[in-house]
Each structure stands twice: as structure tokens, then as C-alpha cells.
Amino acid sequence: MADPEAISRVAIVPYDPQWPYAYAGEHLKLISLGGSSIVALEHIGSTSIPGLAAKPIIDMMAAVMAPEISYELAARLEEHGYRLVETDMRDRLFLRKHSPIDCSAFHLHIVHYNTWGERHERLMRDYLLEHSDAVAAYAAIKIKLACDHAEDSLAYTRAKTAFIQELVDKACAERGLLPIRVWID
After folding, report:
1. Of the candidates 54, 26, 38, 36, the residue with the CA atom closest to the CA atom of residue 125
2. Spatial CA neighbour of 36 closest among 9, 61, 66
3. Which residues, in sequence order, are CB contacts of 172 under 8 Å at separation 6+?
4. CATH superfamily of 4-173
5. What is the pLDDT of residues 7-18, one digit of tens each?
6. Which residues sit opposite 58 in a β-bridge?
7. Residue 142 and residue 175: Cα distance in Å, rounded?
8. Looking at residues 109-121, what average pLDDT do you find?
9. Rounded mean pLDDT of the chain?
10. Angle at 145 between CA 139 and CA 151, to 5 degrees
11. What is the chain written as a DSSP string?
12. Which listed residue, 9, 31, 73, 126, has the most CB atoms within 10 A of its CB?
């Protein structure tokens, strides 16, 4: 899993076939801790795409039925190592969990279920799972940008946004959805 130093900087590593198992284990823990609060939970992000180089962090998205449940769930998860992080991401709570014991790292996005079908992270994941050419192109861009912005994760994220927008636009078009902006300033 993740080296603690790699978590604080942009470090892209080759795909690790253990990532789905790390997600599966954390999925079970989250469902156990969240109970009926969590109505959907999925592995998102680059570690969910077989063969894709990624930052060694398991990204997950959970859906709840009402915004107030998000805060109750976040408080419950704080007792188990998750920390709420203030971000500019709208309509979600973002939590991180890093374990120095096994060097694992998890990010959890908690969103309202009524937005589940239009979440760009899920649309992009599904598009990449269906288009291996896009996986290769995305890997190349990520590796280059990680070198260019190794010490600035925000700059890294901003630099890859145009490519991500292109993938999400294609995913929306394939599904007959209206375009979704992936970055809101």
C-alpha cells in the first residue's frame, strides 16, 4: 500500500493488484460502521481501474439519503481513523484515513444519493473500464504531470482537469446525459 511520504506529495506508482482487496476490506468496515446510513458505496478513482498507474490511495464514494446523515456518518467514522477535511468540493464531505501500521490510505467522499447517477467520478471510472485506450492516455498524462507538479497536488489536479473533463464529456454523451463540469472554481 502507500508509503506515508507518498501520501503528502504526488507520487504515481504502477497498478497494484492488491488495491481491489484493500477496497473490499475497507468496504466491509464502512458498511459495518455506517449501517443503514450508507445506501451505496463504490471504489472510484484510479485505483479502481485495473492496470492504471495511480497515487496509492483508495478512493471511495458513499451515498446517504439526506445531507444531515453525512455529518452523523462522518462523526461515527472519526472514531475509526477517518478525518474530515475541509475542501472546496461542493455537495459532499471528504474524509481521509491513513494508517501508519500498514501504510494504507483511504479517501471517502460522502454524497447525497439523489446525485449518485451524475457523479463525474463514477462516470469517469465506468468510461475508463470500457475504454482501454483512454486508460493508457490517462496514465501517460498522470505520470508526466506528477513529475511536473511533484510537490503541489493542487497544481497536479488542475493540470489534469482538461483531460478528465474530456473523458467525462464522452461518458455523458455515451449515456445520454447533459455535460457535467468536473472542476468548479
Report:
1. 54
2. 66
3. 123, 178, 179, 180
4. Beta Polymerase, domain 2 (3.30.460.10)
5. 457 999 999 999
6. 106
7. 26
8. 95
9. 91
10. 130
11. ---HHHHHS---B---TTHHHHHHHHHHHHHHHHGGG-SEEEEESGGGSTT--B-S-EEEEEEESSHHHHHHHHHHHHTTT-EEE--S-SS-EEEEEEETTTTEEEEEEEEEGGGGGG-HHHHHHHHHHH-HHHHHHHHHHHHHHHHHTTT-HHHHHHHHHHHHHHHHHHHHHHHTPPP--S---
12. 73
Which residue, chain included where needed, has cell 457523479? Answer: 119
Q: For the whole model, what pTM was predicted?
A: 0.91
Contact 112, 98 (CB under 8 A): no
- pLDDT at 99 exceeding the cut of 80: no
How far apart are alpha carbons 138 and 108 in whole angstroms? Answer: 22
* Domains in the chain: boundaries: 4-173
Residue identified by cell 454524497 is: 111
| Inter-axis angle of helices 132-148 and 120-130, nearest 10 | 120
Q: What pLDDT score does 105 carry? A: 93
Integer Cα distance of 171 and 163 in angstroms: 12
d(CA 155, CA 149): 6
Each residue's pLDDT tens digit, 43-52: 999 999 999 9
- Residue 183: band (very low, low, confident or very high) from pLDDT cuts 50, 70, 90: confident
